[in-house]
């Protein structure tokens, strides 16, 4: 099987261990906590980020809450688990995997149990199941998606949809990884991804670890590299995909999709089926607005503008389905017509 070189999240038996992505690439620091509130804050502050990773971390945080509670009464333990679920559900509003994972945990919590230990065991097992399924799913996405990659391709990716955004292996980067492992001579162009620089800090770090050739560009160079025919394909991840094929992903994705369409470059999205939200309409999706200082400063350090300037800082944008060549999932590649074919995907 393929090597797992980066594990962003792990279960310790008592709590959650995660690689603090805010400190990369200069420091590789692992944090650990059995406190679901600490994990919630780690998600909010983006120590843990990426839709699948958030879902896994939230599931582990619920497990940590009950494992470390000195409570034997099933009803009281259930109330604690529900309290943890409700807190974690308020961390980030856009990434759908968070709600998908917490709904799975809630269903387990609400079943009948004869004692507290039985409930604890069920919760931990479900969290571990979510974790292991994520890794298996990511590898399948890579194996399915790599067939789209030709020897010699240069692939542009945006933000970080790699091992650091998942339990391990990644989504968009899974496709790139598997193509590389199979001997395809490929290279990657990574956008820096303002304002938090996930591309510059995280994607470049991951690809360097793999030995995959990578070139870093600023976000406003995308049109230029496409015009110069330096890109063959675009592959990005997603934080939420609607039933009609609208893709919600890191801010800047929509702009890249428009440029790709103009230049005839295939634009692919790689995401697990757990990222699909089949219930919401486009006008119901809440786009997270983050701290203005992420824009006013570089990595919350150097002020680059007037201190009190008004800032717009949406974390995500929405790419319409007509700009998407295909969506790579663990069940196959979905293409237009998206409404019809996404329904088929979930009937498999």
Automatic annotation (TrEMBL):
What function does this protein fulfil? Catalyzes the interconversion of methylthioribose-1-phosphate (MTR-1-P) into methylthioribulose-1-phosphate (MTRu-1-P).
Q: What are this entry's molecular-function GO terms?
A: S-methyl-5-thioribose-1-phosphate isomerase activity
InterPro entries assigned to the protein according to its UniProt record, in alphabetical order: IF-2B-related (IPR000649), IF-M1Pi (IPR005251), IF_2B-like_C (IPR042529), Initiation_fac_2B_a/b/d (IPR011559), M1Pi_N (IPR027363), NagB/RpiA_transferase-like (IPR037171)
Q: What is this protein called?
A: Putative methylthioribose-1-phosphate isomerase
SUPFAM superfamilies attached to this UniProt entry: NagB/RpiA/CoA transferase-like (SSF100950)
A Pfam cross-reference name: IF-2B
Reaction equations catalysed? 5-(methylsulfanyl)-alpha-D-ribose 1-phosphate = 5-(methylsulfanyl)-D-ribulose 1-phosphate
User: Site (Transition state stabilizer): which residue positions?
Assistant: 159
Name the positions where substrate binds: 49-51, 92, 198, 249-250
Indicate the secretion signal residues.
Answer: none
Q: Which UniProt keywords apply?
A: Amino-acid biosynthesis, Isomerase, Methionine biosynthesis
| Protein family according to the UniProt entry | Belongs to the EIF-2B alpha/beta/delta subunits family. MtnA subfamily.
Instruction: Indicate the enzyme's highest-level EC class.
Output: isomerase
- Give the active-site positions: 239 (proton donor)
Q: Which GO terms describe its biological process?
A: L-methionine salvage from methylthioadenosine
Q: Might you give the EC number(s) for this enzyme?
A: 5.3.1.23
